[in-house]
Design brief:
By secondary structure, the chain is an alpha+beta fold. Helices cover 24% and strands 50% of the residues. The protein has helices spanning 2-16, 158-162, 168-182, 188-216, and strands at 21-27, 30-35, 38-42, 47-51, 54-69, 73-85, 88-94, 97-103, 119-132, 139-153, 218-233, 239-250, 257-258, 262-271. The strands form 2 sheets. Strands 1, 2, 5, 6, 9, 10, 11, 12, 13 and 14 form a 10-stranded antiparallel β-sheet that branches. It has a 4-stranded antiparallel β-sheet with strand order 3-4-7-8, with helices on one face. A hairpin with a 3-residue loop joins strand 5 (54-69) and strand 6 (73-85). The radius of gyration is 27 Å and the shape is elongated. The relative contact order is 0.22.
């Protein structure tokens, strides 16, 4: 009799611990991602540009929807946003005037960030088919894999900034500064006027970078992933916790970026 009660209880736990559908939010760092720094490069006689890099872990977050199709497979849909920040600056100079550094803050079109220090942003959309181990109550391990759509921002570099200098409004500002430099002796008033022109020149380039960044948006490519993970859910309570380790492959990234392949998803969700 006791044996029957134990078996019935175990069966009840197994059937009530997991749900047909769930939705959750998670923390999702990507390990091993690096961005190479770019030293100061001359864009024109008056303008230089450089950016720093980063290495290690891209911070991130995401959302997951899962559907359990027992007893054969489960399906997961996951969207993640991960980012690494780097500093970038324009340097504007002229004769007899100290070089002026103008830190760049830009807004990247197609990403969830406002105007900020430049960021390399990597977004992934994953469709995964997983095979669950179903005989363990409360905890469900699984393995699987599937398709990944990568969406990556560009990297602000010398070549990007250099491509903007042909703009007529920027060329005019450069010529105006050059004319002031050619005037010879710099009086205090002229010095002040020249510094204002240099600052205005830097701001002009900065705005053009901003505009072009919005137009560039993000670039998409296709790859895949394999994963190992588990979900845990107590009976009756419609809350589940989950953890995945994903290994990415494929995708197209800027040449300055080593994308890293190992990501973690650690989250909690509503399971119905």
């Amino acid at each position: 009799m006791n044996c029957k009660i134990i078996l019935a209880t175990a069966a009840l736990l197994a059937t009530q611990s997991f749900a047909i559908i769930g939705i959750g939010a998670h923390y999702s760092p990507l390990f091993g991602n690096t961005l190479k720094p770019e030293g100061k490069g001359v864009v024109t006689d008056d303008i230089s540009f450089s950016h720093e890099g980063y290495e290690g872990t891209m911070q991130g977050f995401g959302f997951k929807l899962w559907i359990d199709l027992l007893p054969v497979i489960d399906i997961e849909g996951t969207f993640n946003v991960r980012f690494g920040s780097y500093d970038a600056s324009l340097y504007v100079k002229a004769d007899n005037v100290p070089e002026t550094e103008i830190p760049l803050e830009i807004e990247l079109g197609g990403t969830p960030f406002g105007k900020a220090n430049p960021k390399f942003v990597s977004m992934t959309g994953d469709i995964s088919i997983t095979y669950p181990i179903t005989f363990i109550p409360i905890i469900r391990p699984y393995i699987g894999g599937g398709l990944t759509v990568f969406a990556n921002s560009f990297v602000l570099n010398n070549s990007f900034v250099g491509g903007l200098i042909g703009d007529p409004s920027i060329s005019e500002a450069i010529q105006e500064v050059a004319a002031m430099k050619a005037a010879g002796t710099i009086t205090p008033e002229a010095q002040q006027a020249l510094e204002q022109k240099l600052s205005g020149l830097g701001e002009t380039v900065k705005q053009k970078v901003q505009d072009q960044a919005m137009e560039e948006g993000v670039k998409t490519s296709i790859g895949g992933h394999v994963l190992i993970g588990l979900r845990a859910k107590l009976p009756v309570i419609p809350i589940a916790a989950y953890s995945n380790v994903k290994f990415y492959f494929g995708g197209d990234f800027p040449e300055e970026v080593d994308p890293g392949i190992v990501a973690l998803e650690l989250g909690i969700g509503l399971a119905l």
